[in-house]
Amino acid sequence: MCLIGLLGDVSVTSRRRTTIQNRIKCCLFDHSRRKQQDSRCFHHSSHQVSFKSDTMFSSSFLRLILLLCLLSSSFSSTASSSNSTAADQTLRPQEELQKLKLIRQELDKINKPAVKTIQSPDGDVIACVSTHQQPAFDHPLLQGQRPMDPPEIPEGYSKDDESYEEDSQLWSLSGESCPEGTIPIRRTTEQDMLRASSVSGFGRKIRRVRRDSTNNGHEHAVGYVTGRQYYGAKASINVWSPRVTSQYEFSLSQIWVIAGSFTHDLNTIEAGWQISPELYGDTYPRFFTYWTSDAYRTTGCYNLLCSGFVQTNRRIAIGAAISPRSSYKGGQFDISLLIWKDPKHGHWWLQFGSGALVGYWPEFLFTHLKQHGSMVQFGGEIVNNRPGGSHTTTQMGSGHFAGEGFGKASYFRNLQIVDWDNTLIPVSNLKILADHPNCYDIRGGTNRVWGNYFYYGGPGKNPRCP
Asked: Is 190 a catalytic residue?
């Protein structure tokens, strides 16, 4: 178990040498004290480790640590034979070594060689990766190819209502940028993967089976349209930092373009902002994407954590923290997102802010979305794990109910869809739905400035939501 904490894409600084020596001592403690020392053996403190994606421990140092920990396991089992069975069940060194091997293999696939790395103020490392070496091109149908040229923007698109620019991510505030011919990718660390429930499940959503799903603890407050063919969607999404009270819960606000059935062959394209401590290790709102073609079973992933989405922009990092954010009774900030199907090649493109093309989902990833969407959703989603047997206090949106209005409640504005002839038109016949309106609610409206809009969100647990 000590090995998992000691091996990683980290640099050994002078400050860490003392920490590592202490952790080696921890491995050598006698078995009777090992149980009390587990947390010191197994976990890093975030301020003690500086992740630098392209530096590794020397091989001789790794072998030393491996030898010490294996000797420790052997010593413990012989010195405490009466507890050997329990020790084997607790330590399982072969299983841990296998898990470490799987994590290493996955990190090698995700973290491509960097031309340049940039340290973000929030602790992220942003790697500038050659465009043609990004994870998307691991896909058999994309190998050897290069990104497509930009498509035709939908007719009716206007920058007039955009209030957020592409330099609205924390990593870009350093003044550093990725060179031409590269894209910025947030480095995935060993610690990111260790937080996941499994290596195979890293970067994937828990499967849901209905639009208004209440199973698996997913709760929604959304506006949606059905009944026609949809070739894209656009909205400006208010950005907040809602409280997420458990590592295994999240809070997000996004656009969904949907086709297929919710039971087994659901196709979705998703983009927005999310707070996910399990995925990112912190509570910053982050720009994200997602896709699936089989109802979240085996296909798709967040961001660039699998081959799929092809990024073309060198200034926007998918998965990076967004800044600034809205504040209660203070400044309000939103991001504008546009998803649409290129009428010439059929790929689904994503635009962030005022004209910044992020990239595209190739049409061959999908079955139903090869043609068009049958539903579009806008809104919020949280996971409720019912800590202590009661509803979670994880917030949605601003953490305040829709009735509080501008400056207090979170909003979506200028809701539009892309029609069959690649034209942006206002949403009509918008339906609204809140799974648990006493916990999170939604209220819609229309005006001349915001077009179709709605306020949504809530605090979670409260006297009306026990």
From this structure: no
